[in-house]
Amino acid sequence: MRGSAVYQVNTIYHASGIKCIGESKHAAKEEARENGAKTFSEIGKEIGIYSYATADAYRAVWRAALQNTKEEFQIKDIEKLTGEHIQAFLEKKIEEGVAKSTFQQYAAALEKLETALNLYAEKKETGNTYDFSKNMEIVRDEAIKEELQKFEGSRAYKDVPALISNIRDEKHQLAAKI
Predict the structure, then answer these.
(1) Pure H helices in the chain
(2) Would you tell me how many other CB atoms lie within 10 Å of the CB of residue 148?
(3) Per residue in 94-149, pLDDT tens?
């Protein structure tokens, strides 16, 4: 596929049928269970994306993975992604020291990318199939060995009064105090 990472990701997202905003996620989960899905991971592979926030977060991860693949492997086409590319991206994130919850979100997003790519290939009859599961298992084991930490800190300002006092406009000071 040609185009920027943004274009390619949006094309996969919209054309694959993974976008299910406005539909019942509960009904989709029930249908997945009826089709034999037992674990949360299996259910996740069967259902689409039902939230704008999740869609935005997942597409950001997809773009980052594609950008990493372009930088590391000189592959610009999202349809040429393999499990090795996904593994390399996640290993890079582990090396960067991401929190456990962030790693889990990246992994979930990339599993959903696998689903979206398979749906897209089926609709466009490209003959491509995608299976990142072996590589995902390897990198998840690495994450466990690395003992990724939970984020324990706070992103709040430490000295709020000093921050407010440095705001020059009185209207903005009042807004900051509120």
Answers:
(1) 5-15, 25-34, 40-46, 52-73, 83-95, 100-124, 133-146, 160-165, 170-177
(2) 19
(3) 999 898 889 999 999 999 999 999 999 999 999 999 999 999 999 999 988 888 76
